[in-house]
Write a structure and sequence with these properties.
The protein is of the alpha/beta class. Helices cover 56% and strands 16% of the residues. It has helices spanning 3-32, 36-74, 84-100, 115-122, 124-141, 165-185, 212-228, 237-261, 271-274, 311-321, 324-342, 344-347, 363-373, 377-384, 394-399, 401-414, 430-435, 445-449, 456-470, 483-491, 508-514; strands at residues 104-112, 147-152, 155-162, 198-205, 234-236, 277-284, 294-303, 307-309, 350-354, 388-393, 417-423, 440-443, 474-477, 496-497. The strands form two sheets. Strands 6, 7, 8, 9, 10, 11, 12, 13 and 14 form a nine-stranded mixed beta sheet that branches. It binds ligand C2E and calcium ion (CA) (2 copies).
Length: 522
């Protein structure tokens, strides 16, 4: 209930009671008492009674409203479990108790497998019901003293104290898996016949981490490892760590070495033969039958032993190891140099470069980034001419809206175009986006993949486009793979299109060869 509605409700209740009291209490007294002196005394008592009754009533109403407000703040409204903030607070308290009582504290992060896809098939209402079922199953599977939270759309967290806690949690999650199946089967429509399972990661205090934040991070790392193994896996931090640590260490070392050895930008057709770390460019089209109007720059790493490493993997490594700035600098310089010398930059509206949240997460980082990027007069001119667009993910923008507003304003003032990448996944509100100085929203690929006229994703995409146009923003759809998606997006008046259907990410030489021919793939 909004504050104004709550206030109106309290006022109306007060006025109704006041009116009833005024209308009927005097009449009742007149019927009951004849003596004027007694009447006077009764009138005074009546006044006191009125103050008492309305006082209690006010207290009651205020208490109800405040409790409701607190619940909304502390609990996830859909499932009644703790929200992310409160769960972290609760883990903090649990950790203190565990330390005092010499106990272990286990934290498990449980993720529903394939929830996003299932949700788009069965609809949001059924999706919500499914989440409520899962929450109910978690409640009944875990002991009452366990701390339970829902920390993201399809992610639940559990903290439990005790001895041999890892074994206990694994057994409890096993029980949860079997409980999930029958209880959820009725939620599945004929369209959504996949089974529902969950994956989980577990970390334990004191052996895996000693601080609440680290404990939750360790459980999340274990969850990522479990997800990598497929659906329905449970992984402990220890396992994940020992499986991963040597491969991770090798990749980090190789990436750092490759970056420092990186020679001049490649110009040969097979760029990966010259430079293991090279750029691919994916074209974007305003008109799919016309020429490309802009490109997105995507970094590639062809590891000499392990083959192509996904950017999702190595970008995260560089972020965690603190050298993402160097990697971003390399991408920016190489892109400007390659596109500039080939003459392509003149023919494009702009070039879109992915920047990590770490590159711009503070005023100093943003200024450093801009200073390094605009290292010569020519590049500075490109920025001022609006030829450089920075893609920043919606989730990183939403982490600290105030800070984001400030930093984006600063970058915008210098001339950068700003695109909000993976839009639709970060739960941002219209009011937040309208305050940010952005030029473009980039609809997340997951919405495009399942785009059908009767799907929820279609409604979401339609809403995003309408909203963006109302705010005078451009919309780009990425991940376009078939003609049906193309037709729907064109009908919805999506401004720009990008995807394998129109062109895969290719090295510069191929991009140059294909420029002018329209599509880069057929
Ligand atoms: P992103 O920015 O969302 O990039 C789009 C991803 O979707 C790219 O994957 C691209 O190859 C892929 N893609 C494009 N069209 C299609 C399609 O039609 N179908 C499918 N299935 N996929 C399509 P990629 O290159 O593996 O990059 C993954 C992520 O890695 C990027 O997601 C971005 O977050 C990050 N990344 C890549 N290069 C850089 C970089 O230079 N700097 C930073 N900070 N991040 C980068
Ligand atoms: Ca991007
Ligand atoms: Ca994206």
């Amino acid at each position: 209930m909004t504050p104004s509605r709550a206030a109106i409700k309290i006022t109306i209740i007060y006025m109704v009671i006041g009116l009833v009291w005024i209308l009927f209490s005097d009449r009742a007294l007149e019927l009951l008492v004849d003596d004027p002196a007694t009447m006077m005394r009764m009138q005074t008592l009546k006044g006191w009674a009125y103050v008492l009754v309305t006082g209690v009533l006010f207290g009651l109403l205020a208490w109800t409203m405040l409790r409701k407000q607190r619940e909304l703040h502390d609990f996830d409204t859909l499932t009644g479990l703790l929200n992310w903030y409160m769960f972290r607070e609760a883990v903090d308290a649990q950790l203190q108790s565990a330390k005092l009582n010499n106990q272990q504290l286990g934290v498990a992060v449980i993720n529903l497998d394939g929830f996003r896809q299932l949700n788009s098939q069965i609809g949001q209402r059924a999706g919500d019901a499914l989440l409520q079922h899962v929450a109910g199953s978690i409640r009944s599977s875990f002991p009452t003293h366990a701390t339970l939270g829902r920390v993201a759309a399809d992610e639940f967290c559990i903290a439990l104290r005790g001895d041999d806690i890892q074994r206990q949690i694994i057994d409890l999650i096993d029980r949860l898996q079997t409980e999930l199946q029958p209880s959820l089967s009725h939620l599945q429509t004929t369209d959504a016949k996949q089974s529902v399972s969950c994956s989980a990661g577990i970390a334990v205090f004191p052996q895996d981490a000693r601080q609440p934040k680290e404990l939750i991070t360790a459980a999340n790392l274990a969850l990522a490892e479990a997800k990598e193994k497929g659906q329905g896996h449970v992984c402990t931090y220890r396992q994940a760590y020992s499986d991963n640590v040597s491969r991770r260490a090798t990749l980090v070392r190789d990436l750092a070495n490759t970056l420092s050895r990186q020679s001049n930008p490649a110009t040969t057709a097979d760029a990966s033969k010259t430079n293991p770390l090279y750029l691919a460019y994916q074209p974007q089209f305003s008109d799919p039958k016309g020429k490309m109007t802009s490109v997105e720059v995507l970094l590639r790493w062809a590891h000499p032993l392990h083959g192509n490493i996904s950017p999702d993997t190595f970008i995260e490594l560089a972020e965690q190891e603190g050298f993402i700035g160097k990697l971003t600098d390399y991408v920016c310089r190489t892109a400007v140099e390659e596109l500039g010398t080939s003459g392509l930059l003149d023919t494009l509206d702009y070039v879109s470069i992915n920047v990590s949240a770490h590159d711009i997460n503070s005023a100093t980082a943003s200024e450093d980034f801009a200073r390094r990027f605009e290292h010569d007069a020519a590049t500075k001119q490109l920025v001022e001419a609006g030829k450089i667009q920075l893609e920043i993910t919606e989730t990183s923008v939403m982490q600290d809206k105030q800070q984001a507003l400030h930093l984006l304003q600063m970058l915008k003032k210098r001339g950068y175009r700003i695109s909000v990448d993976d839009f639709g996944t970060g739960y941002s509100s219209l009011s937040v986006i309208s305050r940010l100085p952005v030029d473009e929203l980039k609809i997340d690929r997951s919405f495009v993949t399942h785009l059908r006229e009767d799907s929820n994703d279609y409604l979401i995409v339609r809403t995003i486009i309408a909203m963006a146009h109302a705010l005078d923003l451009q919309v780009v759809a990425e991940g376009l793979e078939n003609d049906a998606q193309l037709l729907l997006l064109q009908n919805l008046r999506c401004d720009k299109l990008q995807g394998y259907l129109l062109g895969r990410p290719v090295p510069l030489a191929q991009l140059k060869a294909l420029h002018g021919t329209g599509h880069t793939s057929t």
